[in-house]
Write a structure and sequence with these properties.
Elements (H helix, E strand, L loop, with lengths): L13 H14 L4 E5 L15 H6 L7 E5 L3 E5 L6 H5 L6 E4 L5 H8 L5 E4 L6 H13 L3 E4 L4 H5 L12 E2 L2 H4 L3 H14 L4 E4 L2 H8 L1 E2 L12 E5 L4 E4 L7 H8 L3 E3 L4 H10 L3 E4 L6 H10 L2 E4 L5 H5 L3 H28 L7 H13 L6 E2 L4 E4 L22 E7 L1 E3 L2 E2 L2 E7 L4 H18 L9 H4 L5 H4 L10 E3 L8 E6 L12 E4 L2 E4 L3 E4 L2 E9 L8 E6 L17 H18 L5 H10 L4
Parallel strand pairs: 1-5, 3-4, 5-6, 8-13, 11-12, 13-14
Antiparallel strand pairs: 1-2, 2-3, 7-9, 8-10, 10-11, 15-18, 16-17, 17-20, 18-19, 21-22, 23-26, 24-25, 26-27
Helix pairs in contact: 4-5, 11-12, 14-15
């Protein structure tokens, strides 16, 4: 299987490990240290040897930061993890802090003793993050100092080795554009922006640019590497050469110079010696790279990763591939939902059994390369934990009369999927049906939106919340994130949230996932992926408008819909969507699932 259910979090280890780290800091004459959930590439998914935050605190979420001082410590998480962090971490050692209510830099300003030296690993923090923390430390009367070697690594006795998974070539039929053509396109953009080179630190940008994939992190087909792109169209790829076989070398040899990872600092210094103007993204570039460029004499130009926006705007081959992936994935999910409807009614299911069965249905497609993330299989109150991961210790039955939330996805050569469905196990009370219908209304409002060019996700976010707001309700996560093409299930720069300021463009794939969570009771989320469609006329309108095409194909549980709360237009959208689901999936289903789907997609 592509997921495990081991309970790796052990809060009891926090005190001893914190004490060991404090002793190492004291030995180095340091008063504190930052431990981010990050590796040197600043990605969401990190390899086992970089899971420093999890090792120290027990917290296994995909985003977070701990700060340890001599006499106190805190762990910072966002709204997705406020419940999870208290289950996994010794809160007598690490005080849980909501990073929106109290940013970590503000905590430093208020808690760092005067004269104290707060240390950080410059490979694990971005340029922007270092600037914020340095300012906070200085306001507190202390200093923010880099370390040459990570003190946590010095006390992590059984730290795993860095990964060495083999690089795979991503076929042109799925990529839709050769690596050489991509490099030429990005190089032209570089020259137009008056940069002579760009340092690429994000592995998904490197994967996209060179049409390669890897297996260095879980659930996302990345090869961890760095690259430098030069204005003359030449590129250097810094990668552990054990990851490359003859096929990969032949593919890359046509477009890049392959160099060992150990030569990166030397190459950065050479850019400085030639007084090159080097583009770096301060939101994703490790401070160590920025510092090396500046100290060696380069002119550092701050700007977005030059691959990020082109990667986000999928070409025709990528959109065609993701449609095929969603058709295949939708059939697997529909088989699962039909199975749950039968087995759940017997009262014999639990979260782990359900997650395993869903993975099995996806595997039976014969095309599954991995899951796109660990399946969130949350029954009853566990569904209220936004990024819940079922383990042997938390496994809960799917009880009659409760809700079951399942958020899952697959990685296929032709596309990445991410879909959430919330279903009733037997008859449920009126309140969950009301909340579900309000979430559905928000989902429909966003899916139906038409908007002019230049519109950002922040401008659309309220559409998904309005029905909840009218009832005094809301949810604490973004409404939608970008999704890659056989790459990361969370991709930038596009997103639909209060902070989503990047204008949406044709070809961008985003999730549409409003929700509602009642702590200790249940969780609701309805998620489809959508692709932004090109501008098109609106009948009687004066401007062409962008819109969304829904990619995900799977039924939405009608047993949870309060028809009285839906307008006729909303009911028509749901009926039309279900008719499309039925027509598309029926040829891929067995007879029993076909009959189930016929009822599950009936008009209301």
């Amino acid at each position: 299987m592509f997921q495990t259910f081991d309970d790796t979090a052990n809060p009891a280890l926090g005190a001893e490990r914190a004490a060991r780290l404090r002793a190492e800091l004291k030995r180095r004459n340091l008063d504190g240290f930052l431990i981010p959930r990050a590796d040197e590439h600043q990605g969401e998914y990190v390899p086992p040897h970089a899971e420093r935050l999890a090792w120290l605190t027990g917290f296994s979420g995909s985003a977070g930061l701990a700060i340890i001082l001599a006499d106190k410590a805190a762990i910072f998480v966002d709204g997705r993890y406020t419940l999870q962090v208290r289950d996994q971490v010794d809160i007598d050692i690490f005080d849980p802090v909501h990073m929106i209510d109290m940013p970590a830099s503000q905590w430093v300003e208020e808690n760092l003793p005067k004269g104290a030296k707060l240390a950080y690993d410059p490979w694990l923090h971005t340029v922007d993050a270092v600037a914020r923390f340095r300012k906070a430390a200085e306001k507190a009367g202390g200093s923010f100092v880099p370390v040459e070697s990570n003190p946590l690594d010095a006390v992590w006795d059984d730290q795993p080795e860095p990964p060495r998974a083999r690089v795979q070539i991503h076929p042109l039929e799925y990529a839709g554009e050769t690596a050489a053509d991509k490099i030429k396109r990005i190089t032209n953009d570089l020259m137009a922006g008056d940069a002579s080179a760009a340092v690429l630190t994000m592995p998904d940008s490197i994967a996209w640019l060179f049409n390669i994939r890897g297996g260095d992190v879980s659930h996302t087909p990345l090869a961890l590497a760095f690259a430098i792109l030069h204005e003359d169209g030449h590129a250097d790829l810094f990668i552990d050469e054990h990851k490359l076989d003859d096929v990969a070398r032949a593919h890359l040899g046509n477009v890049v110079s392959i160099r060992p990872r150990s030569e990166l600092n030397e190459a950065l210094a050479r850019l400085g010696e030639t007084k090159a103007t080097v583009l770096v993204d301060p939101t994703t570039c490790a401070s160590a790279i920025y510092d090396q460029l500046k100290s060696s004499g380069a002119e550092v130009k701050r700007g977005s990763d030059p691959c990020e926006l082109p990667k986000a705007c999928k070409n025709e081959a990528e959109v065609r591939g993701t449609r095929a992936a969603h058709l295949r994935d939708g059939a697997a999910l529909t088989r699962f939902l039909a199975w749950v409807s039968v087995e759940g009614a017997k009262g014999s299911l639990d979260e782990m059994t359900a997650a395993k069965k869903l993975e099995a249905f996806r595997a039976e497609t014969g095309a599954l390369k991995d899951l796109s993330f660990d399946t969130i299989s949350g029954a009853g109150s566990n569904g209220a934990i936004v990024h819940y991961r079922v383990t042997e210790g938390t496994n809960r039955p799917l009880n009659i009369g409760e809700l079951f939330l399942v958020d899952s996805g697959g990685q296929y050569l032709d596309g990445t999927t991410d879909v959430t469905r919330t279903v009733a196990i037997g008859a449920v009370a009126d309140e969950p049906r009301d909340r579900f219908t309000r979430v559905l209304k928000g989902h429909i409002a966003l899916a139906s939106a038409r908007f002019p060019e230049g519109t950002s996700g922040a401008q659309l976010d309220a559409l998904a919340r309005m029905a909840l707001w009218k009832a005094g309700l809301d949810f604490d996560h973004g409404t939608g994130h970008g999704v890659g093409s056989y790459l990361s299930v969370h991709e930038g720069p596009q997103r639909i949230s209060k902070a989503g300021t990047v204008p949406l463009k044709p070809g961008m794939i985003l999730s549409n996932e409003p929700g509602y969570y009642k702590t200790g009771a249940y969780g609701i989320r309805i998620e489809n992926l959508m692709v932004v469609t090109p501008p098109a006329p609106v009948e009687g309108g004066e401007r062409d408008m962008l819109g969304f095409e829904t990619l995900t194909l799977a039924p939405i549980d009608l047993e949870l819909v309060n028809r009285d709360l839906l307008s006729d237009e909303e009911a028509e959208w749901l009926n039309t969507y279900h008719a499309r689901v039925y027509e598309a999936l029926t040829p891929l289903l067995d007879e029993d699932t076909h009959h189930w789907l016929l009822h599950a997609t009936r008009a209301i």
